[in-house]
Amino acid sequence: MQPCCRCLFLLCVFHLSGTWPDLEGSFTLRLLRTFVFQNASFVDTEGLGLLQDIELGSLDKHTWSIRFYQPWVHSALPRSDWDTIQNMIRIYVHHFIHLIGEGALEKNVPYPFVAQCMVGCEMYPNRTSRAFAYVAYNGQDFLSFDTDNATWVLSQDTSLSRYVLAYLQNYTAFSELLEVLFNETCIDNMEVLLHHGKAALERQEPPLATVFARTPSPAQLLLVCRVTGFYPRPISVAWLRDGQEVPPGPALNTSPILPNADLTYQLRSVLAVFPRDGHSYACRVRHRSLGTRSLLIPWGNPEIVLIAGLAAGLVAALVVAAVIARWVWRCRKHQQMEVSESRNSILSKEA
Questions:
Q1: Domain end: 201, 229, 245, which one?
Q2: How many domains does the chain have?
Q3: Cβ-Cβ contacts under 8 Å for 193 (sequence gap 6 or more)
Q4: What's the pLDDT tens digit per position in 122-175?
Q5: I want to staple 142 with a disulfide (CB 3.0 to 4.6 A). Which of 134, 137, 258, 324 is the partner?
Q6: CATH code at 189?
Q7: 232 and 54 Cβ atoms separated by less than 8 Å
Q8: 113-123 and 129-137 strand pairing
């Protein structure tokens, strides 16, 4: 089954020895393939490799050559290995198209339809891992590969899914290949990619946040907190009412995190309130790029406040203020003593 095979072979070629980088958190290596079956004679296909959300590369459907989106991916293997991979990918792609095409013809599947595959592995901070392989049909789960038992499992029970399942279950060489790749190759490949792509994975872009209001009706005010330009993806956005966090509820609506064109992310959080209700509101943003600090954007005040844990920040400010005040006082006292001594000296000479 090609999209999986094509993706899986990409996993295979990343098999190199590397040093495990000093990175935190879990990591996922995913290889995606999409096939649009327009009719019995024309199929359009696209593929992509991802480490976390970093695009590694794709296969040009016209030239069957790999396009590298990151220079450190290309340098991971010699040119001869990449040439071999390209040829194997082409074979697997053609094989999958033939398999699905035959199944569609035998089961009278209406055109057009879309087949997709996602295969890869995830590594956790304690170095344990899990592998996965999924096939979808028209955007719905179709088949999945049980890595523990090395067998395919139906996600939806249709004549087409049973046909493909039966074919794959009898294709023992492919299942064995999957098992080897999942149990041995994928994690090794990920370690190599993490080593080469450490700088890209550690990239941090701080969020930009603004607060504005919309009035859908005289009795309702929508406070909108727009946060954009941040990377990596994880972020925390909350509304504060009189300094207390507003709990989830029908008045609070936060959008999914969406990508920007510059490889950063954005989201919006909207809070419905009553106009002139007497409360103060602020949007609080926490992100890895800010460290222990937070962005605090009060409603009605365009100034963005960067806070570093209010208690610690306040204490530090008071300490600094006290030190400065004492230093100024001592300087002034010293100057006064010098002036006094100078005057006494002058009076003594005149006498």
A1: 201
A2: 2
A3: 14, 29, 51, 56, 73, 76
A4: 988 888 888 888 989 999 999 998 877 778 899 989 888 888 888 888 777 666
A5: 137
A6: 3.30.500.10
A7: no
A8: antiparallel
